[in-house]
Amino acid sequence: MRNPFRQLFSFDRNSVRWRNFVSTAAFTARVFLSIGIALFLAFMIQLESPMSTVTTVLIVANPTVGALVSKSVWRMTGTVIGAALSTAVMAMFVQSAVLYFMALSAFVGLACMTATCLRYFRAYAAVLTGYTIIIVAVPAFAHPENIFLSAMMRVSDVALGIVVTAAVFMVTSPRRRQGTMDALSGAFRETIRHALVFHEGLMNRSDAQDVPGSEPVGTEGAFRSLPQTIYDGRQRLLGQLARLGPAIEYAATDNPDIHAGVRGYRLAVSRMTGLVASYHPYWRNLGVANPLSAPVHREIRDTLTELLALTENAGWIERPQGVLACLEESLERLEVLEGAVTSPAVQASVDNVRDILLQLRETVLDLSSPRGPHVRVRVLPYLEWMSAIYNGLRGVLIAFLACMIWYITYFPTGPMMIMYVVAASSLLSTAPSAARASLPMAIGTALSVPACWLCHIAALPRVDGYPMLWLSVCACMLPGVWLQFHPRYGVGAFGYTVFLAMQLMITNSMVPDDITLINTWLAILMGCALLVLVFRVIMPADQRLYASRLVISLGRSLQSLSARPAGKVPSWMVWEGTQIQKVSILLMRLSLVASPIDRQGYVDGAFAALSLGRLLIRLRQAVEPAGLSAHEREALDGALASFKTLRRDPVGTAASLMAAAGLIGADEASGMEGLYRVRLVSCLEQSAHIIDSIPGFFHADGPLHLWYDERGPATLVAVNPAR
């Protein structure tokens, strides 16, 4: 029994555990200070519902000041829009309760759908619009003529909570630009290390040099046969890059320097994600196919090793000349190697390595000159419409059910149940999986009921002044605030704190009413049951279906890319940026699929699809300089047209590509035409090899598109379902 207590109180001040404890304690202290000031001011200016300011503090509080500011701005925006809509809906349907409930449900569903489509805290404006409508309307159900006054009081509560929280956190929280830049530099170095592992294994063993902390990749083995440590490292790096996106957005809100170059930093993160996606098990197949490419891999191995040494110092981003010079010199040496290339197999390695070096150079430019003229690319966010529509339908259903339950039973605190289910469903619409998060949200809310009971029987009757009231409220909310950003308990802790504040009902002149309090608890518990019923039973999430739609979308993007005229091929960065967003969502969906599925195969297949798109764009760029004859051009057009059958016959598409490569490669040419002809053939052969490696990924009857209990011949993405 002594060991746990000894471990609890014997922190190493340099350990991660100690730093996490200190940061959590500091965040909790700031939240409680904000609650104390906001609640005191609400009492002083006689707001009708002072606990709404506490709820606002709990929702907008964030350890990152930029995130807090962004969340506060969008919360205020959503509150104003929701208050205006609530007033308008009440005015239009005041004579018909059922029509009012239908209109309310429609607006809640629309808000949930919009919140699913938007990113970061912009989605929070839609969330607030949805549940502010019902929060404003509840006090005016008995007296509709007071709806405007209720709207103004809600806006006042939210504004007070936002101003107090922002002031406290901005005064007490350090804000440094260097933290964001260090994170970007660290991600860049990790990306280089990830690439270095592959090139170490794809060159001759005798010339390979050991890389500390890495495991060399052999050249033997088939698709999806990388060591598990490689997969784990890739997943960890992708998670690190995914977290960088929101961190940059929040830092840009608070820091003018970051804000001025935010587009460049976004592009840098997108390019690094693309670089990670470029390295998948197909590199092993490529190494087996062209063992003569060892000098190419040796060249980039030496370049990457030198880059790690050049980026060791923290200030390399401000002084990138050495890094850029190293990349330029490597590109020049690569051109010399390319001049001696006569085999399309070796040219494949040269082209892929050149792409990597160019992407590294562009990433360095994005980091060091984020406002430079080269930052013109704008990657639009990918909208997952299917998930958005499903969340919208859930919002409509749960809001209408709650309203009709209250309308039929006339339960005294039924409006509290409506308020809870609308707020909870709106908040869940921003979660990666609303159905999965609904149960922790309901459990956390249910746990707030006994906490509220303890507060009312043990703390509030003994309060004789504001300091005691503040300490009592903070003591009740401590567990939720402390665990709010814990990866495992965050959703439940958030539901506990926010809806505990809603239940406490502390006002300027409190009159104990046990019957109303008990009815409120029953309404909250009924709302929890209804939330789980709708999200987990009536409309459960089908993660397998969501994932299959994303795989289909990746295949259709390749089909669209192959069918575009040469003059209308999109920018590589624009196309890849959209597909990377799909792949990121796909990784999350696959992790939630409960039925047996070849998850690793689909992840590698998605990355290989990105490489296939890169090859198609590179192929288009080489067509005109290659000087193809009419017969060869016809064969190439036929090979590209075969992408129309990619979902029905991927093996046939691969065969068409190989046939075109054989025809074009049979005619030897000299000079630049010959070089571009070799590039063209290498792109066709690589594309064919990728499709042949994962036919089940592209096929419409692939394993992901079948029901989990459906028996079929395709169990792996490497198996062709048509056979």
From TrEMBL:
Coiled coil: none annotated. The keyword Transmembrane helix applies. InterPro entries: PHBA_efflux_AaeB/fusaric-R. Pfam families: FUSC. The chain crosses the membrane at residues 21-45, 100-118, 123-142, 148-171, 388-408, 465-482, 489-506, 518-539. The keyword Transmembrane applies. It comes from the Bacteria. Keywords: Membrane, Transmembrane, Transmembrane helix. This is FUSC family protein. It comes from Gluconobacter potus.
